[in-house]
Write a structure and sequence with these properties.
5 strands, 12% strand, 193 residues, alpha/beta
Length: 193
């Protein structure tokens, strides 16, 4: 299978979200397989070996804390041939986004998503997942390196970290980033936060 055709797996309990993502991404990025139940995930990952997993953080009515998705994120990243994981949720919580990124998610997308941004994020995640089926072995003296991330992904992570560190105080977060509040608001809007 060629790297650019590595599939995307989407796990979301809302069938409308699955259909919308499939229609958007399958023509612009890669084939998309939609799953609605977490119980289906690991068999699909073993069978399909996707380059990207779009992972909802909440399953079932009334769930908004992201605990189910964060647990799945850890299990996926611990598995062999783990794809790049982009977490998704309708509940845009800065702390939840920071937790997901710190736990190894490639990126965080809020629903409803911006189509251009979701396509770009999936392309970036697939590019990160491309360097072969297995990561190259490292020598004992070689420090681990992280795949380079786009400038937009770095900016988004910095904004999330600053807001989280400031415990949601946007004036303090703007000062720590060396920005005006208006500039911080523009960046929050730009990144869908």
């Amino acid at each position: 299978m060629t790297p650019e055709l590595r599939p995307i797996v989407l796990l979301d309990d809302d069938p409308d979200v699955g259909l919308a993502a499939q229609l958007l991404l399958q023509r612009r990025v890669a084939p998309v397989t939609v799953l609605q139940r977490p119980a289906e995930l690991f068999a699909a990952l073993d069978r399909l070996r996707p380059g990207v997993l779009l992972l909802d953080l909440n399953f079932g009515p009334g769930r908004t804390d992201g605990a189910q998705g964060l647990r799945l994120l850890a299990e996926v990243l611990a598995s062999a041939h783990a794809p790049a994981v982009v977490v998704m949720t309708a509940y845009a919580d800065i702390d939840l986004a920071v937790q997901a990124l710190k736990r190894g998610a490639f990126d965080f997308v809020t629903k409803p998503w911006d189509n251009v941004r979701l396509v770009a994020t999936c392309h970036e995640a697939l590019a990160r997942a491309q360097p072969g089926a297995a990561p190259p072995a490292m020598s004992a003296t070689e420090p681990p390196t992280e795949a380079p991330r786009s400038l937009a992904a770095q900016e988004r992570a910095a904004v999330l970290a600053a807001v989280s560190e400031a415990q949601g105080n946007l004036s303090e977060a703007a000062r720590s980033l060396g920005l005006s509040r208006a500039a911080l608001y523009r960046r929050l809007d730009k990144h869908g936060l």
